[in-house]
Specification:
The complex is a heterodimer of chains A (about 140) and B (about 525).
Chain A (H helix, E strand, L loop, with lengths): L1 H21 L14 H19 L10 H24 L1 H15 L4 H22 L12
Helix pairs in contact in A: 1-2, 3-4, 4-5
Chain B lengths: L1 H13 L2 H19 L5 H14 L4 H26 L10 H10 L3 H34 L4 H15 L7 H15 L2 E2 L6 E2 L13 H20 L20 H23 L4 H17 L11 H25 L5 H12 L6 H6 L1 H22 L3 H7 L4 H20 L2 H19 L5 H24 L10 H31 L10
Antiparallel strand pairs in B: 1-2
The chains are: A mainly alpha (about 140), B mainly alpha (about 525).
């Protein structure tokens, strides 16, 4: 069933892609086949493969339980928030929070997670910023 | 002779303090990443690329660092295979079969040093193979026109699923997905926007580094979260190494095995779509056929069963560099990632690389020779250091990996949009892995998409829109035949070989790509 759903989504993506390719504006510097042809070929390949998934699906993969799925979704959300808040909070604070969350969810006790978070964040800051001179996000406090 | 002179020049490039240090650092980090289950060569190199760039390393130093990581990971994978029966990365899977039984018999040290020597032999002779074969392949590649290049790219995608692929539709889908992503952004030939929908961040296209780090490294973190696997790979008690000295008689008995496996591994590496995993699988299977027909000793701790796959995967990793450097078309996951290094440094891989940037090519090859000796030293006398790393629990390790990924990507662009996009790619990678869609073709598609299109359009412009130009030369027809055979053959043979490899796969998930 998973492969059938995947094939269905694939077909929609392919259709959208081909449509988006057809609305690419023509340029006055046209070459023999133009900017549309190759994307359309790709879209057609996506569509053909999707039809194969629909017709001959593989055996069902082992999907995680709802709990694990929520786990992944939450972790992704935390990582996205991390990405967005990085300039607001500064590298050190944002990284402490994100690392502590991930470490905690992988099974460390809360206090130990916070310590791991601080150690990781400060460690990366020292190695990559102070020693190697990489630019990291500066927050309101300058680090 | 000309080759040897170039190689000598390469050694001059490699023998600077900075390059030697980077080679050593790369070898160390590579062995570490190889040893740790969950971090393989492909995602290890992927995480380090943005960091190497942000540090402002030039082309040769960056390549030396990252290829040393690649070679190192091939060495390091065996450590946890032997000690824990968990392969550190995919190519080390076959090493579990005889390595772990040896460790159980109290001969872990012997297995480690034998496999270390085996890794050295495989990598050393494969690097010689690279020296001799790559310039020859360059001569062929110079005959390629745009049409032939387009077919060559098609060939790379058609064969990338590999001989072990059971579902070619999924490989093809993955490749097309990668190509589709590569099309986003300004069309270089006409200057029109494609698939950007007015989103300013997409005008320059999607940086392939973001896709690579997201697909490989972050999806790995999600896999670990899914299984709540936070513990350490190793337990303190199980890590007794014992004496490191193999006895000379055993070593001598392994010499013919090393010879055969080097050749097989190297060929498996050069062929498109094979890579190190297949190299070790073929070496082990063939060796078993030759020296242990009745199945008496293999699988029960035969030293030759440890040597064969280790020689095989290291020889294959050297072989896989041949098409990557000479043609610009990688045949495996990690060489695809290494191609990304070249492309982001604005170096066009392929035949012109050897004439335009000989210092890069030969400096790199010389560094590989030097790195091999460093790896031998790191992997036999100092192997105890790496076994201790296996005691670090993944609940600490994986967040660190994630954070370093963020640091690297933020370092190149400083854009929060890119970070969010990377998380998106991480999720996409997780879903694709669940559905058994290979990630390497996606990466390769993103990397090669624009070049593939440019070559197609050039060929069409030359022929004035006549599509038969793609089949006009004997070279192109030959490439088409290989491409079609490479795509169709796995549909016939794939299930058998795949089940052979699958049967050896332990239950633990192993990082993707080789």
């Amino acid at each position: 069933m998973s492969d059938r759903i995947f094939g269905g989504i694939g077909l929609v993506v392919a259709a959208f892609y081909i449509w988006a390719a057809t609305i690419i504006p023509e340029s006055f510097m046209a070459d023999a086949i133009g900017p549309k042809t190759f994307p359309i070929i790709i879209g057609v390949i996506l569509a053909i493969c999707s039809v194969v998934f629909l017709m001959r699906p593989d055996p069902e993969p082992e999907w995680p339980t709802t709990g694990s799925l929520a786990e992944i979704a939450l972790a992704a959300l935390v990582m996205m928030l991390y990405g967005m808040l990085l300039p607001e909070l500064g590298f050190v604070f944002a990284t402490i929070l994100a690392t502590a969350y991930l470490t905690w969810r992988l099974g460390t006790r809360p206090v130990a997670s916070l310590i791991t978070g601080i150690a990781t964040s400060v460690g990366i800051y020292v190695v990559f910023h102070l020693i190697l001179g990489l630019s990291l996000a500066k927050g309101p406090f300058g680090f | 002779m000309e080759t040897l002179a170039s190689l000598a020049d390469g050694f001059i490039v490699a023998f600077t303090v900075q390059n030697l240090f980077l080679a050593l650092l790369g070898c160390f980090l590579g062995t570490l990443m190889g040893a740790l289950p969950g971090l393989g060569p492909a995602n290890g190199v992927a995480i380090l690329i943005p960091i190497a760039f942000s540090l402002g390393l030039g082309p040769t130093p960056s390549l030396i660092l990252l290829t040393s990581v690649y070679y190192g990971a091939m060495y390091g994978g065996r450590i946890s295979s032997i000690l824990l029966n968990i392969p550190g990365d995919e190519p080390a899977m076959m090493t579990c079969l005889d390595g772990y039984p040896m460790a159980q018999q109290g001969k872990a040290g012997e297995a480690l040093s034998l496999s270390g020597i085996a890794s050295f032999v495989g990598a050393f002779f494969a690097t010689w193979g690279l020296v001799l074969l790559a310039p020859q392949l360059v001569k062929v590649a110079l005959l390629f026109g745009p049409a032939e290049y387009f077919v060559l790219f098609t060939l790379a995608f058609a064969t990338l699923g590999g001989i072990s692929s059971t579902n070619q539709a999924k490989s093809a889908f993955a490749a097309a997905l990668g190509l589709a992503i590569a099309m986003i952004g300004v069309d270089t030939q006409t200057g029109v926007q494609r698939f950007t929908f007015g989103e300013m961040h997409l005008f320059d296209g999607i940086d392939f580094l973001i896709a690579i780090v997201g697909l490989f490294a972050l999806s790995e973190v999600f896999i670990f979260l899914e299984h709540h696997r936070g513990g350490a790979a190793g337990k303190a008690g199980a890590m007794q190494i014992g004496s490191l000295m193999p006895d000379m008689a055993t070593l001598k008995r392994c010499v013919p095995t090393m010879g055969r496996s080097t050749v097989i591994g190297f060929i498996a590496g050069v062929l498109p779509g094979a890579g190190a995993s297949l190299g070790s699988f073929l070496s082990y299977s063939l060796e078993k056929q030759i020296v242990d027909r009745d199945g008496k000793t293999f699988g029960k701790g035969d030293p030759r069963g440890v040597v064969a796959p280790e020689v095989g995967n290291n020889a294959a990793s050297g072989g896989a560099l041949v098409p990557m450097l000479a043609l610009g078309v990688p045949g495996s996951g990690t060489t695809a990632v290494l191609l990304a290094v070249l492309l982001s440094l604005n170096i066009t891989p392929g035949p012109l690389l050897f004439t335009n940037n000989p210092d890069v090519v030969w400096g790199l090859i010389a560094a590989l020779f030097i790195g091999n000796f460093m790896l031998l030293a790191l992997n036999i006398p100092m192997v105890g250091l790496f076994t201790r790393v296996l005691l670090v629990p993944t609940r600490i390790l994986m967040p660190v990996v994630a954070m370093i990924s963020f640091v690297g990507i933020y370092g190149i662009s400083g854009s929060t949009f890119d970070l969010t996009l990377m998380v998106g790619f991480g999720l996409l990678g997780w879903v694709l892995r669940k559905l058994d869609v290979p990630l390497v073709p996606v990466i390769l598609g993103i990397l090669l998409g624009n070049q593939m299109e440019v070559n197609l359009r050039r060929a069409m412009t030359i022929s004035d829109g006549d599509w038969t130009a793609l089949f006009a030369s004997p070279l192109a027809i030959g490439l088409w035949i290989v491409a079609i055979t490479g795509f169709v053959l796995p549909i016939i043979l794939g299930r058998r070989i795949k089940s052979g490899i699958e049967a050896q796969r332990p239950h633990e998930a192993v990082s993707d790509g080789d």
